[in-house]
Amino acid sequence: MTLRADVAELLAAVGIIGVDVDDAVADEHVRWSAYRRIVSVIASSPSRDRDRAIVATILRDPVEMVAKSAVPSWTRSP
User: Fold this and answer.
1) Is residue 16 within 8 Å of residue 41, measured between CB atoms?
2) What is the predicted pLDDT for the residue at 73?
3) What is the model's pTM?
4) pLDDT tens, position by position, 21-35
5) How far is 42 from 63, CA to CA, in rounded Å?
6) Who contacts 50 (Cβ-Cβ below 8 Å, separation ≥6)?
7) Buried (b) or exposed (e) across 11-43, using 16+ Cβ within 10 A?
């Protein structure tokens, strides 16, 4: 998948609207903020079914610092 497809899929999966996917792809700060919102939504969800897939997708981000700082260490598998 491409970064654009990953970001679009993540936002849609958790129902976040109002984030411009193209801006998120172009600007790592916008993307980091979107990822933090996504993590916040899944953290507050009573279901854990999709957490691993969402975290794995975020951690695929080409900018390692963006990915790792957006996903708290307690959500990552050892």
Assistant:
1) yes
2) 64
3) 0.88
4) 999 999 999 999 999
5) 22
6) 13, 42
7) beeeeeeebebeebbeebebbbebbebbbebbe
